[in-house]
């Protein structure tokens, strides 16, 4: 069990060292005011004039030149090398929702590791903000108001089944797996609802649907997956 470094009843913004579009950080902070940096993400925050409330990671990407400008009590070193800094930050933040910026784009291996962490910590809701999409681990049920034609993709990170309403190609009957059928490039016919039979399914919806996704995750109607054993 990880001891929380940040424990709050409000959503949290988590910033990484990947690509951050103009306005991405402000967009997240308008919805989640507490700012946490995953290691080198603090450099991106400082470059935009923001001092994180906490910096979490192994600190191997934080030069001493910049470290001296950060209050020592805000630096939280997690020295193990078996996980990414995104993983370290996610599992040490207790919040109803995390909004992540700076974790998409750039290196593909970093993105894949981030998706892996989303699935490994499915009990910790996190929405990644990309240039055109919002990406998150699908909760047990998702309801979202979309307009006809909106692209909706689901990608299995484990064998999983689901059923849907409001998608042009229904998900029912599809035995999805990373090395089998997937559910990308689907389209909404209007409001959608998706129920997953188990964890392991990533969802990708238009960035413009971000506020609807946030509302759903903060709704008492949104269930949560249990934490993985071990």
How would you sum up this structure, described in words?
With 230 residues, the chain is of the alpha/beta class. 20% of the residues lie in helices and 30% in strands. It has helices at residues 24-29, 41-47, 64-67, 85-91, 108-120, 210-218; strands at residues 6-7, 12-15, 34-38, 54-57, 75-77, 93-94, 98-101, 126-129, 133-137, 141-144, 151-156, 162-167, 183-196, 201-206. Strands 2, 3, 4, 5, 7, 8, 9, 10, 11, 12, 13 and 14 form a 12-stranded mixed β-sheet that branches. The termini are close together.
Broad structural category: alpha/beta
Radius of gyration: 17 Å
The quaternary organization reads as: single chain
The low-pLDDT segments are: none
Fraction of residues in β-strands: 25-35%
Shape: globular
Distance between the termini: 8 Å
Note the run of SSEs as H and E: EEHEHEHEHEEHEEEEEEEH
Mean pLDDT, rounded to whole units? 94
The main sheet comes to: 12 strands, mixed
Beta strand count: 14
- Helix count equals 6
Helix proportion range: 10-25%
EC number: 2.7.6.2
Domain Thiamin pyrophosphokinase thiamin-binding: 148-189
Keywords: ATP-binding, Kinase, Nucleotide-binding, Transferase
Organism: Ruegeria marisflavi
In short:
Helix content is about 20%, strand content about 30%. With about 230 residues, the chain is α/β, with parallel strands linked by helices. Strands 2, 3, 4, 5, 7, 8, 9, 10, 11, 12, 13 and 14 form a 12-stranded mixed beta sheet that branches. Strands 1-6 form a two-stranded parallel ribbon.
